Amino acid sequence: MSPNEQQFEAWNGGESVHYVDHSDRYDRQLAPFAEALFERAEPGVHHAVLDVGCGCGATTIAAAHRARRAVGVDISRPLLEVADQRARAGSLENAEFVVADAQTFAFDEGAFDVVISQFGLMFFDDPRSAFANLRRALVPGGRLAFVCWRGLEDNEWVSIVGEVVARHGDLPSLGGLAGGPGMFALKDPDETGALLAGAGFTGIEVEAISPNIVLGGGGSLDASSEFLLGMGIVRGLLGRVDPPERAEAIEAVHAALAERYEPGIGVGLGAGGWLVCASG
Ligand SMILES: C[S@@+](CC[C@H](N)C(=O)[O-])C[C@H]1O[C@@H](n2cnc3c(N)ncnc32)[C@H](O)[C@@H]1O
Questions:
Q1: How far apart are CA 107 and CA 115, in angstroms?
Q2: Apex CA 54: angle with CA 52 and CA 58, to 5°?
Q3: Ligand 1 centroid to 80 CA: how many Å?
Q4: Average pLDDT, 10 consecutive residues per value, the chain (280 residues)
Q5: 0.85 cut: is pTM over it?
Q6: Which helix (H) or strand (E) is 257 found in, with range?
Q7: Ligand 1: which of 17, 74, 115 to mutate, judged by most atoms within 8 Å of the beta carbon?
Q8: What range defines the domain where residue 208 resides?
Q9: Is 263 part of a structural domain of the chain?
Q10: Which of 69, 109, 156, 161 could form a disulfide with 270 if both were Cys (CB 3.0 to 4.6 A apart)?
């Protein structure tokens, strides 16, 4: 199996569809994280920025507005097509997108002043060599800044579903999804610190951030519920419930969202991430 083959299949197949169809909603939902990320990454007008796992490109485009050059790298062709269209629609000539595996791609050494990522660094099957590869892409002393998820229990948009699924029996523990590539792969800050140090980064700082997010960026209760039920991780969790009990589980998720729904705003949920900063 070649590196990250399963992730390549997922992000070019099933996992990509919901992102492509709802790219603006994801961006609105994640806006508090993007804001925190840019406050620490501080891309300047003379900087070249690499955005890893850039998806539909919102953060690459935000970087291009601030910096000399912004390059988004991602293994997902469908997501990068959206990113490319968005950059062209905004007539941005300093944003470019590369379909490549950031773990193995031969970036020009020292080509970037800043490497950023919004939830794009948790999917490597060899994280240590991936982070070493990103460090090589940075100028010596350049800045790495990224956000990743804390645990499932810190993120209501998954824990609500996890709790419902657990009632139906097949979820051993709410933390049980961690380990290996996946959205909670960097949930342990000590492990992340050691990983970065092993890849040669210095001055590593890991800060917990806990913004409230608006599910799917807002909308009616039904639209918010439909958005959540379409997310890859949620489909995966609900797939553990026996089909005869699934409608009941979905109804329970909907009821939990209704408790958090505010007309005119949407469903507000607690979210927890790590904001990680280091020097290359
Ligand atoms: C959770 S999405 C985040 C997308 C985007 N940064 C955002 O905030 O909406 C994770 C992204 O990482 C990308 N990804 C996963 N493994 C990758 C790899 N080895 N190299 C580059 N991108 C990767 C996926 O294709 C996906 O677009």
A1: 12
A2: 135
A3: 10
A4: 88 92 97 98 97 98 98 98 96 97 98 98 95 98 97 92 87 54 92 96 98 96 96 89 93 97 96 97
A5: yes
A6: helix 243-259
A7: 74
A8: 5-150+178-214+271-279
A9: no
A10: 156
